[in-house]
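Section: Multi-chain targets

For targets with more than one molecule, the full set of components is provided together so that the structure can be written out for the assembly as a whole rather than chain by chain. Components appear in the order listed by the source. The example entry contains four components.
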Amino acid sequence: MSVTIDDELWSAVGDSTRRRMLDLLLNDGGGTATTLSRQLPITRQAVAKHLGVLHRVGMVHVTSLGRERIYEVSQAQLARAVAQLSSVGATWDARLQRIKGIAEAIQHSREG
Amino acid sequence: MSVTIDDELWSAVGDSTRRRMLDLLLNDGGGTATTLSRQLPITRQAVAKHLGVLHRVGMVHVTSLGRERIYEVSQAQLARAVAQLSSVGATWDARLQRIKGIAEAIQHSREG
DNA sequence: ATCAAAGAGCAACCAATCGTTGCACATACC
DNA sequence: GGTATGTGCAACGATTGGTTGCTCTTTGAT
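Its structure, encoded as tokens over all components, is:
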């Protein structure tokens, strides 16, 4: 069984800066490229690019308000991402358990 | 609270090709750059580079056997990765729940 | 009403990474 | 010995994450 996953989602969430951005957006309930860049060690333009990729995969949605563009996390899509994270984790966990079981069986057969 | 995570581990696991490689190594109990490249749509040299980064972060270990170099998954490090995946997932999940709770509270106060 | 300040967008550029091809070297086997 | 197979190294191109610099729009203060 393949653990191949929605690659777009993963690449969105695989970047540490984007994870921090999602974190900030969740914490503050939304933000603009400018407000985010104030809380991050990168420029507004870099933040804007990241928001672009997050938006392209539907992880955030935008609303214009005057001259500002406010980004918020899309709950449904974040839930999907969380589900996939835990799915991969669970799969690997299961394989580790199985390997561990095999190792123990070998150990037993050696001891017995 | 920051969800900042061991970035090396994440960048190792954030790449979809490397995830597939880990999968294959777990499934087969080990492999070489050549055997992996046969099961992947990329060249042996590309696989070798990926094995390099996985090795650098301790996700795999190598043993030389004749002219072959056999890679196996390091169980301890994979377990760490799994733990971090589920940690991020749990954090986001909690925030989603909290937001959902707030939304419901607002809904109630509107209705009440 | 005008004009400076602040937010956003666009383009060019740089460095790192993921892929490629091509070649040299080492080991296995006939 | 010679050929096939596994590995390693280097150069190259495309993409990506960051930068700087500029322009445009909106706000708001004088």
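Chain B is about 70% helix and 10% strand.
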